[in-house]
Amino acid sequence: MKLQFKHQKFQADAAKAVVDVFAGQPYLTPSYMMDKGDGSYQIELDEEEKFTGWRNERIIPALSDARILENLQKIQRANQIAPSPKLEGRYNLTIEMETGVGKTYTYIKTMYELNKHYGWSKFIVVVPSIAIREGVYKSFQVTQEHFAEEYGKKIRFFIYNSAKLTEIDRFASDSSVNVMIINSQAFNARGKDARRIYMKLDEFRSRRPIEIIAKTNPVMIIDEPQSVEGKQTKERLKEFCPLLTLRYSATHKSDNLYNMIYRLDAMEAYNKRLVKKISVKGITETGSTATEGYVYLESINLSKADPTATIQFDYKGAVSVRKVTRKVGIGFNLYDNSNNMEEYRDNFVVKFIDGRDNHVEFLNGIKIFAGDVVGKVSEEQLRRIQIRETILSHIERERQLFHKGIKVLSLFFIDEVAKYKQYDASGKPYNGMYADMFEEEYTDILANIQREFGDNEYMNYLDSIKPQDTHAGYFSIDKKGKLTDSKISDKTEKTSDDIDAYDLIMKNKELLLDRDPKNSPVRFIFSHSALREGWDNPNVFQICTLKQSSSDVRKRQEVGRGLRLCVNQDGERMDANILGNDVHNINVLTVIASESYDSFAKGLQSELADAVAGRPVAITADLFKEKVIRDINGNEQVVDNDMAQAIYFDMVVNGYVDKKGALTDKYYADKANGSIQVAEEVADCADAVLEIVDSIYDSNAMKLENARDKNVELQLDPDKLAMPQFKALWERISPKSVYVVDFDTDELVQKAITCLNRKLRVSKIFFKVETGTIEEIKSKDALLSGESFVKEQSAVYDASRKIHASSSVKYDLIGKLVEETGLTRKAVVKILAGIEKTVFDQFKDNPEEFIIKAAALINDEKATAIIQHITYSILDEHYSTEIFTEPTMKGKLGVNAMKVQKHLYDHIVFDSSNEHDFATDLDTNTDVAVYVKLPDGFYISTPVGHYNPDWAIAFYEGTVKHIYFVAETKGSMSSMQLRLIEESKIHCAREHFKAISSGEVVYDVVDSYQELLNKVMR
């Protein structure tokens, strides 16, 4: 398998933020004569060429600190980051990126962009450990071809090794892009070998390696600075003489936030579905003085029939007592079914099973909830429950994803190898306690698995893998080839610097993703808890820590190994571009905790809250003040005090903010239903206002899912599938189509000219100079607020007075517009030549804003032209009804799931109150024969992405005019720009259904069942 990489906007934005700080720096690639060293050595013919060095050009004098600070503040405001009052050194920039979103990919892309814009070609990546060093090196390897395709060149990268000093010479003398990866111990630790980088070395012509490196003026990238930058290391880093330093991490320390320019924190990554959703399976020990009897409630099972419960209890066999698992109903007697064990004699009979809150009550009054265990529970038994729950979650996820070609992996962290693998006196390995538990539980679960319709291929897959082959240990290996505990190098961080284990993990990363059992039967991985840093695998869907949770091990660190979005067998990332709204149905990381859901969730939530501590925590008028908002045409304005008050007051009036400034349930409900209202003064900037609102920290936005809550799994009703009304509906809507776009470029050019003349307005860059004095200091608050200063006079210097803020910067206007719009140079020249002189003259006032706004307006016209000239044609290919059997849809009864009668499934899962009400009306109306909420696998291709209609409905013949109807009820786009895209998709959907059904299927957008009736009755 070869992993595929995509161009993602947030990664490009992070790279652009760094590049734009130095806007005005020219493209230069200076050379110099390197230090040849001393001593006796043979002079070579290519001596001069060999010792010609290439360095990064320093920042030109014209690009002053004041100018760079201005660039920095502009970028910060655009990225909703508080502007820095000053530069923190020359130059330090901080980039925050959540674990799992591609931090290493982002800084590699940034290297290419800095080289492309300014010619800088020398980079050093400093990492805190061997673990991360190996992971970074692997990332450079696997992304090399991807970036070469985009930029037309490859980076030369190497790991610093004091025994291979020729690499240092090559780093300095090679004119291409060079990257040295070094772990901080190599220049910071004590000991002779560690300090060789500072020594005059005979084998290096009596030169110091650090001096050769420093002469190149490298750009330094620090990966995980919170783990690198101790007091001593900070001083050592200065000896590299970096041109600038970029710091990348998900968990920066608050005192090391030097000039942050880009932030993609845990909350934003989670809400934008760039990482997996986190689900927690908790296990709670419930002390009960009423009994010594052991009972573990695994789950409540809901279906059309009466609810059942899956419980585990003791059973007295012929030789010993063992644990057994049974699916039970009301009246089940544990005493009778345990072979008359005394601990269950006292009325241990199931009295009640409640699916609303997942509990079982016995006649003796004992009540337990899913995940609860009562009675005598040893440490060993708790670990067995964890292993079993991990296997159950694995099988459930694997079954769901099998037909999508996605390999599912589960990861167990343990604290000592002996619990997994042991060796006899002759060195022959045998199972440790955990390996035995795993094989016993795995065998039991597979023996009792319920086979379902269409499951044959998956069952054959399970049958082809032996229990002993499907788990493996990834640990360090000693000199005799035995697995051994990793050597902990960092007592505070609990991480390992054991290169053997990392080599094994890294070299097998792609192999682990191969689903062919002949190549890779391993699906369950046991690893040392010290190996928690520096590697991850995108297809880890379950993480289980089989050790006592301690306060020094951070939960966020544990889940970080499985946050990355998964890939399929083609190495393709399963993100929103592929899955649309299904991202968090497919990408779910389940943590099997050794504590209750509430306890684990509270701990992780607390860590996440600390991680996003820089965010505001309440809605106030000050939240909006001084923010830059943009309307749908790209016009910007700064929110003043009056406008900020109006926005805040409107949110209070609409019931979106409570007394403490927290967002209310009404806000989230209106947002889900697409009916958010904003103040009239900013109605055309609604998307920008909501972006500011969503920037506050809200624990509800990152609430962890309780894996036991989703107790309803939708079951397809074969009788509904066989109904003649559904068959007729499906016959008409299942054909696929292809579209063609045929528009006239000259027509587009003319429309773009008209649009630019009408809408392109660029603000001038000017300096405002104000003077004032302190007349009286009334109070400390007056000083802090600035009220003590009395303004006396002001003057404005603008472009008309020949003071240009950007006069030293040259712009390729045509090239930039070609790059941003995808049009030919010829078309762009025609557009620029056709616009009015006064419009074009705005370019010299503010070139950057001119390019951004002009490109946006041209792209709008281009999108409109594409949609207006699109035609669909029917294909012979049809969607199969298998799209209804492939996905596993689950919900919680009474929360986001309800029982229904006319739906294709026995229940329905709804996303908003609108959907709930719409489904209720459909289900109770006598005119409706059958309906289905269409799965995301059913989509229409459009030029602006896949489009998934919401509902397909068949009415009884004779009751309405239009029998077959496809409805869209979402309307959940908060962004004005996204609404335009949604309108384009809806237009395409209308054209698609016209093409495939000859008018028999009506497609329309409705916001209620009453509106649907109005449409079908016409």
Q: What is the secondary structure topology, with strand pairs?
A:
Layout: H1 9-21, E1 31-33, H2 47-50, E2 52-54, H3 65-78, E3 92-97, H4 103-118, E4 122-127, H5 130-151, E5 156-159, H6 166-173, E6 178-183, H7 185-188, H8 209-214, E7 219-223, H9 225-228, H10 231-238, E8 244-249, E9 260-264, H11 266-271, E10 277-281, E11 284-286, E12 295-301, E13 308-316, E14 321-328, H12 334-337, E15 350-354, E16 359-362, E17 367-369, E18 372-374, H13 379-401, E19 409-414, E20 421-423, E21 429-431, H14 433-447, H15 456-463, E22 471-474, E23 476-477, E24 483-484, E25 488-490, E26 495-496, H16 499-507, H17 509-512, E27 524-528, E28 540-545, H18 555-559, H19 576-579, H20 583-586, E29 588-592, H21 597-611, H22 621-624, E30 628-630, E31 636-638, H23 641-653, H24 665-673, H25 686-693, E32 705-706, E33 712-713, H26 718-721, H27 724-733, E34 735-741, H28 745-759, E35 767-774, H29 780-785, E36 789-797, H30 813-821, H31 825-834, H32 837-840, H33 842-845, H34 847-868, E37 870-878, E38 890-891, E39 897-899, E40 907-909, H35 913-924, E41 928-933, E42 951-955, E43 964-968, H36 976-997, E44 1001-1005, ...
Parallel strand pairs: 3-8, 3-9, 4-6, 4-7, 5-6, 7-8, 10-29, 10-32, 11-18, 19-27, 19-28, 22-27, 28-29, 43-44
Antiparallel strand pairs: 1-2, 12-13, 12-18, 13-14, 15-16, 16-17, 20-21, 23-24, 25-26, 30-31, 33-38, 34-37, 35-36, 39-40, 41-42, 42-43
Helix pairs in contact: 1-4, 4-5, 5-16, 13-14, 28-31, 28-34, 30-34
